[in-house]
Amino acid sequence: MPEEEHTESLIHIALGGEELFAIGPLVVTNSMVGALLASLLLLAGAWYVARRSTLIPNRVQSLLELPVEFVAGIVEGSTSRWRSYVALVIGLFLMILAANWLGLLPGVGTVGLKHGEELVPLIRPAAADLNFTLGLALITFVVFVFWGVRLHGGLGYLKEVAGEPRYMAPLMFPIHLISELSRLVSLSMRLFGNVFAGEVLIATMLALTTATLFVLPLAFFVPAVFLGLELLFGAVQALVFALLTMTYITMAIAEHEGDHAPEHEASEGHGTEADTRTASSPA
Question: Number of folded domains in the chain?
């Protein structure tokens, strides 16, 4: 029995954030600490760029500006209103990227407090907690609906959700509503599932290689391979979440611009035809 308990303790993975301590009604979890550290890291980078930036950037400034310029270049080609939401897309990308990569640092997930028979890590990847990913997805959902209401109006947005023809609204409205809410679920579950699976994979490989450390010399290099893959997957998941946010906002804006484009083109066409008749008529 003691050997079985020790074997189980090598791989300690919790589905949600684990409580470290409580401040009154506020419960502080290890995933909250991970999110806080990621935020502090981004604030430090922003402070450095704001205070130390130069016209000819040095290596550190170029490294910090690279992801911002990369994502901004993608968003710039989405719609004519891209400046209104580019900060949100860049912020989501950087936050998720920092949270994912922070979870790969030594000690994260392995150094913690002893609660009974279990070790509760002090720091945990924020995106491995569904509360974190759901919060980011809620921000995206609110901004997407905001753009729909802003461009179409409240009644117009409800008409868009109801769909055409109007007599099918009692059937189509619930379907379209579920479709809108499914974006919220897919955004949060996709990021949570991938990061949580990566956390389980890393913990499993560390446990296996620790058990075979004196038998298999390659045990030093096996975790490094998976850590490198997680670096790549962490960046990909952050980019996917940010680009999906941009896509949903772009769809709301593009539908509005598409509705008004034919009217604009028609008015230009009538004006050209009228000018032609005026020019061809005798003085």
Answer: 1
CA distance linking residue 216 with residue 49, whole number of Å = 45
Query: What pTM, to 2 d.p., does this model score?
Result: 0.78
What pLDDT shows up at residue 56?
80
Q: For residue 54, what are the domain limits?
A: 2-280
Q: Enter the tokens of residue 268.
A: 């230009």
Containing H/E element for 113? strand 112-115
CA distances in angstroms from 67 to 39, 105, 213, 234, listed in the order given: 16, 20, 38, 14
Residues of the chain with pLDDT under 70: 1-16, 109-110, 112, 114-119, 209-222, 255-283
> What is the reported pLDDT for 258?
53
In this predicted structure, what is the pLDDT of residue 38? Answer: 92
Q: Give the span between the Cα atoms of 248 and 254, in whole angstroms.
A: 10
**Burial class, 94, CB count within 10 angstroms (exposed 0-12 / middle 13-18 / buried 19+):** buried
Q: What is the pLDDT of residue 13?
A: 60
Strand partners, 26: 23
* Dist. CA 90–CA 74, nearest whole Å: 10
Dihedral angle sign, alpha carbons of residues 265, 268, 273, 274: positive
d(CA 145, CA 139): 10
